[in-house]
Amino acid sequence: MSKASRASQASQASSRRTGQGRETGQETGREPDQAQRRGRGVWVLTIAALTAFAILVTLGTWQLQRLAWKEDLIARLEAGARADPVDVAAIAKRLQNGEKLEDVRFRPVSVAGTFDHAREFHVWAGTSKGGPAWQVVTPLRLVTALPGRKRYDTRYVLVIRGVVPERAKAAQQRAGGQPQGPQQIVGRVRLGAPGSMFAPAPSQTRNRWFRLDIAGMRRAIATAFVEGSASGTPDEAIMLTLPFFIEAYQASPGTGAPKPRLSGINLRNRHFSYALTWYGLAATLLAIYALMVHARLRRTANA
């Protein structure tokens, strides 16, 4: 073999070794890159899972705190409902001093005044054995007005007198149960019902209301008062009426008077189930996270 042939073979062998070395280097470099990416993915997944877990646990704990608050509120309301009736002026004074409306719910009260039957409100009360029924809510003009903070004193409180059937919805159909002159009413404080996107809007022209809308009824009284007055605005006259209802314990005397339909203290309290939901989601998240990390580690070990 000539010197030229031996030199050519040596050159080719050297080239093959160099190419193999490059391929080996590329494969060796690629494997660490894949391992690093898998490692970074696990860290990102861990941070996201821990963040979501902390949020879910916090929401569950918050619901337990709300549960304790609601149980305490219910206990206080039940204790207050068993107390002796106080004059409505005492309740109004407590509200002026900063007490919240929710803290006087179901509190027994007494009030003296004269019914303004011409301005009574009819609130849908559902159906019963006798068919459709309506609650009758009548403004009671106080014997003694309560001092107000703005232009007008407080002169009215709305009394939930009870329920009448559809056929007796019109006041003239139950004239015998519409007492005249001063009345002494004993009942309990009730707050307005919250609005709902499913509840129809009231029809004031037909006197049809579909919830105990304390704000709407107060404004209706204020508007009627201002329209018959020489000055003032409905926003100012809203203070004419107390910001709560009194639900009468007993029916007014006379034939056809609305019959009270009293129910127990039944405040919505689902905070414990809400807490279980959030904690359950947190536990589910941990299980999914563990499965995903286990799958990633197995792929890394088998690579």
What does this structure look like?
With 303 residues, this protein is α+β, with helices and mostly antiparallel strands. 46% of the residues lie in helices and 21% in strands. The chain has helices spanning 3-81, 88-96, 214-227, 234-237, 271-302; strands spanning 86-87, 108-115, 121-128, 131-146, 154-165, 182-190, 241-248. It has a 5-stranded mixed β-barrel with strand order 2-4-5-7-6. The longest helix is centred in the first third of the chain and has 79 residues, at 3-81. The chain starts with a helix and ends with a helix.
Please indicate the percent range of residues in DSSP E strands (runs of 2 or more): 15-25%
Tell me roughly what share of residues is in helical segments: 40-55%
pLDDT below 50 for ≥5 consecutive residues: which ranges?
21-29
Query: What structural class should be given to the helix and strand makeup?
Result: alpha+beta
Q: Mean pLDDT, nearest integer?
A: 84
* Total number of beta strands: 7
Form type:
elongated
Radius of gyration, Cα only, in angstroms?
37 Å
**Major β-sheet annotation:** 5 strands, mixed, barrel
Side-by-side strand order of the widest sheet: 2-4-5-7-6
Helical element count?
5
The first-to-last residue Cα distance is 47 Å
Can you write the helix and strand succession as a string? Answer: HEHEEEEEHHEH
